[in-house]
Amino acid sequence: MILEVLIGKNKYKLECRPEESEIILDCADRLDQRIKELEENIENVSNSHLLVIAGLMLEQELIQKNQEFIEEKKLLYTEDELYEAMSEQMDNVSNYIEKIITKIDKL
Fold first, then answer.
1. Is 105 helix (H, G, I), strand (E, B) or coil?
2. In whole angstroms, what is the distance from residue 104 CA to residue 107 CA?
3. What is the Cα–Cα distance from 28 to 26, expressed in whole angstroms?
4. Residue 82 predicted with pLDDT over 80
5. What's the predicted TM-score (pTM) here?
6. Is 95 exposed, middle or buried (0-12, 13-18, 19+ CB in 10 A)?
7. Closest C-alpha to 30, from 62, 47, 6, 9
8. 52-90 burial string, b = 16+ CB within 10 Å, else e?
């Protein structure tokens, strides 16, 4: 299937599978919107430069999201690790109390 998308001032023909067409059109619309926003803020820049700037901005956002995800996973891992350690310590205390009770019962 061939799609024609408008990004910036240019039309592009892209080949894709039919099931991919909707997401590709959505992504193209979003990229086109980014290009239009850049055009409003940056004067006298070619369409190719706007595409490069948009690509770099997207890459930066991806890196930032990946770092946030990694930090979130570290935090979750630390919480899980803490929970496991606390659970183990509670088991140890429980076993210790049971031993004391057994000794008291023998008296």
1. helix
2. 5
3. 5
4. no
5. 0.63
6. exposed
7. 6
8. eebeeeeeeeeeeeeeeeeeeeeeeeeeeeeeeeeeeee
